[in-house]
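Purpose: get a first structural picture of the assembly so the mutagenesis plan has something to point at.
Setup: two entries, given in the order below. No constraints added.
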Amino acid sequence: MRILIIEDDTEAAEYLRKALGESGHTADIAGDGDEGFSLARDGNYDVLIVDRMLPKRDGLSVLRDLGEAMESMPPVLILSALADVDDRVQGLRAGGDDYLTKPYSFSELLARVEALARRPRAEEQKTRYEVGDLTLDRLSHRVTRAGQSITLQPREFRLLEYLMKHAGQVVTRTMLLENVWDYHFDPQTNVIDVHISRLRAKIDKGFDHPLLHTVRGAGYAIRPPAA
Amino acid sequence: MLIGAVVAALSALLVAYAYSAVVSELTRQRVTALQAEAAALATLGEQTGPAGLAAALTATPDRAFRVADAAGQTLAGTLAAPDQASPKSTYRVVGQQGPFADGTLIARVDRELRSGGALSLARSLQPVAALANRLLYSFLAALIVLGVVALAASYLLAQRTARRVAALTQESEEIMAGDLARRLGQSADQDELDQLACAVNRMLDRIAQLMVGLKEVSDNVAHDLKTPLNRMRARAETVLRTAKSDGELRDGLTRTIDDADALIRTFNAMLLVARLEAGAVTRSFETFDLSALMGDIAELYGPLIEDEGGTFEAALTDGAFIVGNRNLVSQAVTNLVENAVKYGRKCNGSPGDGLRPPDVRLALKVRDKRIYLTVADRGPGILPQHRARALERFGRLEASRSTNGSGLGLSLVSAIADLHDAELRLEDNAPGLAVSLEFAATDTPPAHAAPVSHARERVLATQA
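Result (structure tokens, whole complex):
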């Protein structure tokens, strides 16, 4: 995957490039808003990582200009030291697809970048997800595993839906909290783990191969058993 | 300067008008009196003839006359013959005439007698002019006195204002130089300057209050951030010195990152409390459904508590709407619930048996336009004398020093409550702690309805 990092802190940007490289992605670095704009416009990247506060031109205005200059813009992850909900709304309104507050952990950033890159476009949203022998139908709200129907609470359904939409990718606890519960702050208890383990008891218990995996130090992933 | 000139010019115009009005009125009276006298004398002249009239009349220093016969010859008197070309009642004497000196202004009446002959009577207008002049001089004198008094008064007033502004400036300089306890002085008049000084003083009070908050924050930062930072540093150093294997190094680094995360959380919470207390977050207020928010939180935390073996109960009234920031309110309630989970455990007394799992109860009631939100646990509670301390920043009670947490939970709730004009109360749950928030209910449900996904969920929930 080709990623452009628009960030003026060279040390942080270099660290990000290395870490993304280790995860199998190639990343370029733009040190200010102007350079970031021209690289992003001509560079054919899969994901942009944009810092809000940049020299010469701030991140949000770069995004606005890119939106006008490009026919289809790659998904954008905004990095910012500004953590208010209002700031987040501002960032998403300016054309960001996801928002991450500094300081962040690399595993959080990686999970979000990968989720963004494989995000289906709105018109190709599937009505049915399949992972191994687990299926979820978004229209009839039915979940089955190996032909057996599984009853889920509404929130469990949304949790599973989000996990299956990102099947094969790591999904962090914060991503779940934001996308399934719409909370934008970190709880200090293992509240998400409890819901995951309840979901796991319903979809994995009694079957040979577990589908819902815990990724240590990062989050969770749902994926088919390795063939 | 300009105003002075305008006032002077207006005064001059006024005096000139008054002068001419007085002169013309007095002149008119003199002429009228003279006409009456001439009419009376003419009647006499009808009976006695011009000669008789001439004999009867005598000149006074103030009055002159002329009596002529039918042929126009002067019979008596010192006045000149009337000027037929331009008869008028007043004019200036040319040359010496009777008692009048050259150039004297006189009032004069000329009459033909029906029995033949003519009568002219004249009086000096000198007394009129004298009176008008006296009037003019007293006017001018009054004006000059008034002008001087006005100038002096405005000078004194300006001096006084300048002195007070200078005093205020001086006081402001001293406050800026660091004497922050000082306030601007006020006079007894309660004029505009005093109102300004009063407003500035109130502003200084508010600044002082914020400064105290800031100082508290920095003191606490010094204490409560330095301690974990120091611990983190010591731990990293120990690992570096003693680790024998990669695995041990890895564990050490992982723990260091956990410590850093905890520090970041504390720091974020501190910043948020400080921003909330400065009142910076009111622009994003909207009407929202507090019942739905509480329902979501119950749904999120219920399983957590039940999995630990505790009991969880939610008694929520539907349709409670408030105006506020939805995200902040859910953060406040979440904090309360997490506190209840953390501190709501209780020693059950029996020896060897550790802590009992938490029992948590959520309640939402609406009564008389007020909404009462309660989060209650069955833990050790907080003694009445410690309750105020528990709301302060970093106000962790000694008993809880051993558990994790920044100690900012309740002060964050308190700051969010203040922002929403909600009353935060810590009460005895007998046993345990009941934290309640009292909000003002709003009548208007949000203009935009709840998201479709939510609505669908509720339907599903009732089907399940």
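Residues 2-56 of chain B form the longest helix (55 residues).
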